[in-house]
């Protein structure tokens, strides 16, 4: 029996050992699984961080590429202006290098098609490679001028002229731009141009116009005659001489010089236009109309010829015909402020104030201080009983032209309607003063 008990104890001990081994194995397996889980978690976390880091790097790379692309393809505005202020010494080699670049050809094509923003984009790219080239600055000036940014155009062309002071194209563009801005420096620019190259007829013509505008008639005549020596059919120069003859009371000489130009080339629309204008100035509306029609026949797509015919028809009392023609001219040249001004005037006289205002605001986009456009807009608002807007535009006119009688009359009337007594009385005092000076 004791032997049986000992055997039972031995069996129990053996089972305990086996259980212990089993428990130890279970524990070991749990530890393996835990370590494996920790390792898997660690690997997952590492993979996640690697993916996040990769995404961040990819994002930064994309952003960098976008910045580079934008900097290459959309350089314009102030960034172009800053690059154009670079002080790298320009040389003929620098301009040659620019003109050899594909971007230059793209810019030339864009300039020809009127895509001025694209021109500025290409200019910016070229400046990254060859700074200080007068060729890029001249191109930027043309683009800014096309966009109506006169001051930016002036800055760019001034920089171009600094680098290439004797470049005829740059001088001519600069002179015309200053002339359009009313800058007296235009005369000096054209005087320098004709010293650099005295064989540019158009430069002599523009110089003659500037002299004539400054009451330097003798110098103007000499400049116009020099233009005609170079180009006998230059009708602008002939017209300038004709005006001088007319001012001196010599209409026969004026008529003769214009008719001579017409005889040189009867199909020249400009010759027809100048003769038409001459006859209209002297009250011969029949001949004026005949030559206006000839001008349109010679250049049927010319907005200027259509516009002038509209003026002649209006002088002849054909208001409906004049309005139809000026609308046609406006359709052909929607960005021409002079045609828009004429159209606005005809529309106002035809009792279409809303359409007139819309057209005249195109004028102000190009000529923000054009007192004629501002006055017409004010009058149109008066016709619509929009007195607050009318007063605003009349006030703009008198701020620009303090002696513009019609604007003071409009301002006095609108202030009276708005019951602004003090302002109305002040405006009427100005009206009385200006009428007295005019002898009315």
Explained architecture:
With 440 residues, this protein is mostly helical. 82% of the residues lie in helices and 0% in strands. It contains 23 helices and no strands. It has helices spanning 2-73, 77-84, 92-99, 102-113, 116-129, 134-146, 150-163, 168-180, 185-196, 201-213, 217-230, 235-247, 251-264, 269-281, 285-298, 303-315, 319-332, 337-349, 353-366, 371-383, 387-400, 405-417, 421-438. The longest helix has 72 residues, at 2-73. Residues 1-42, 60-77 and 83-87 have low confidence and may be disordered.
Give a short overview.
The protein is mainly alpha-helical. It is 82% helix and 0% strand.
- Per DSSP E runs of 2 or more residues, the count of β-strands stands at 0
User: What sequence of helices (H) and strands (E) makes up the elements?
Assistant: HHHHHHHHHHHHHHHHHHHHHHH
Name the beta content range. Answer: under 5%
Instruction: Classify the helix fraction into a percent range.
Output: over 70%
Instruction: Output the radius of gyration.
Output: 40 Å
Query: How does the helix and strand content classify structurally?
Result: mainly alpha
The major β-sheet equals:
none
Q: Estimate the mean pLDDT confidence.
A: 83
């Amino acid at each position: 029996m004791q032997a049986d008990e000992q055997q039972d104890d031995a069996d129990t001990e053996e089972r305990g050992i086996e259980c212990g081994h089993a428990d130890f194995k279970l524990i070991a397996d749990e530890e393996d699984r835990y370590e494996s889980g920790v390792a898997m978690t660690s690997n997952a976390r590492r993979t996640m961080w690697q993916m996040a880091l990769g995404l961040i790097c990819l994002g930064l790379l994309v952003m960098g590429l976008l910045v580079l692309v934008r900097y290459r393809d959309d350089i314009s505005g102030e960034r172009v202006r800053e690059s154009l202020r670079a002080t790298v010494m320009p040389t003929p080699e620098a301009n040659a290098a620019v003109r050899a670049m594909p971007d230059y050809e793209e810019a030339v094509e864009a300039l020809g098609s009127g895509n001025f923003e694209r021109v500025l984009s290409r200019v910016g790219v070229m400046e990254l490679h060859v700074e200080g080239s007068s060729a890029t600055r001249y191109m930027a000036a043309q683009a800014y001028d096309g966009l109506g940014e006169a001051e930016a155009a002036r800055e760019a062309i001034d920089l171009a002229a600094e680098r290439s002071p004797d470049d005829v194209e740059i001088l001519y563009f600069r002179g015309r731009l200053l002339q359009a801005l009313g800058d007296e420096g235009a005369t000096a620019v054209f005087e320098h141009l004709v010293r650099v190259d005295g064989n540019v007829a158009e430069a002599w013509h523009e110089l003659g116009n500037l002299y004539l505008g400054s009451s330097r008639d003798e110098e103007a005549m000499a400049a116009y005659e020099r233009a005609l020596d170079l180009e006998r059919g230059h009708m602008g120069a002939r017209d300038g001489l004709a005006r001088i003859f007319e001012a001196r009371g010599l209409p026969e000489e004026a008529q003769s010089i214009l008719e001579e130009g017409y005889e040189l080339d009867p199909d020249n629309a400009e010759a027809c236009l100048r003769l038409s204008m001459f006859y209209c100035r002297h009250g011969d509306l029949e001949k004026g109309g005949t030559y206006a029609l000839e001008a349109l026949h010679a250049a049927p797509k010319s907005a200027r010829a259509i516009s002038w015919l509209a003026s002649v028809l209006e002088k002849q009392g054909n208001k409906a015909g004049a309005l139809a023609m000026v609308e046609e001219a406006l359709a052909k040249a929607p960005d021409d402020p002079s045609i828009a001004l004429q159209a606005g005037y005809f529309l106002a006289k035809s009792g279409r104030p809303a359409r007139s205002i819309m057209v005249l605001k195109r004028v102000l986009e190009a000529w923000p201080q054009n007192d004629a456009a501002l006055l017409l807009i004010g009058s149109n608002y008066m016709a619509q009983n929009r007195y607050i807007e009318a007063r605003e535009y009349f006030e703009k006119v008198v701020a620009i032209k303090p002696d513009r009688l019609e604007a003071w009359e409009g301002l006095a009337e609108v202030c009276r309607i708005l019951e602004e007594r003090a302002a109305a009385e002040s405006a009427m005092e100005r009206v009385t003063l200006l009428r007295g000076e005019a002898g009315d």
